[in-house]
Amino acid sequence: MSRFFWLDEDDAVVAQYGGYIDASHRWGLPGVRCPTCDTTWSGTGHCYPCVDLSQLPERDEFKKPRPEPFTEFARLRELVRPLAPPGATLPPGTGFGPLVGRASGKLAAFEWLISVVLLRRDALEQLQAEGVRGLLAGPTALRFRQKNPPEFLELQIEPRGRLHPDCIPPDVPPPCPTCGRFRLTRPDEPILDAASLPTDRDLFRLGNFATMVIGTERLVDAVRRLELDGITFRELPTR
What we know:
By secondary structure, the protein is of the alpha/beta class. It has 2 domains: 4-13 and 158-236, no CATH class; 14-155, no CATH class. The protein has 4 helices and 16 strands. The strands form 4 sheets. A 5-stranded mixed beta sheet has the order 13-14-15-1-16. A hairpin with a 2-residue loop joins strand 14 and strand 15 (209-216). The N and C termini lie close together (12 Å). The mean pLDDT is 96.
């Protein structure tokens, strides 16, 4: 039976190294003011660094984060949908293109910006050589202070699996039918829905909790063999 692990930042390594990255995606969908659930919101965890909006005539409309009425949000979402991976849900706040910003200090092989995951190019190539499947990465536009800085790429980690309904409290309302907002707090004891988990890749997000990044045993074993730092693993049950 396959084993799956919740991946997260290694706070001890962050404290030891003291480096930092301050960046955001070049383009993004705005937040939304939803008339159905009466909420203004923007999510995190949906990022497509390999999606380039530079040839889109309306690209400048995706540069400034702001809330928009749902009709305007929906118009912008449909403009980028043909460029996004098939089936992508593209909620408010979805980011596109490279991370633009600054970086400094010593950095781990894996670096995290909330749920955005960056990986040093040499580490990515090592993992691919180890047979880790489905690793897709886009370039970053980070400005480093030091000479000969490392090259970091952002992993494009798409939503595939889901949390099992058994770990979702029964009083949590279903997602808003208009904007898709799901008012779920991350469970203390997450359970993965086995039937929803992909079999063609070793790294993915959860579709109903996209800030949770999940890796297979193959990925975890490779990271440990290569002694890549900046990442922790917590095995999760499936049902």
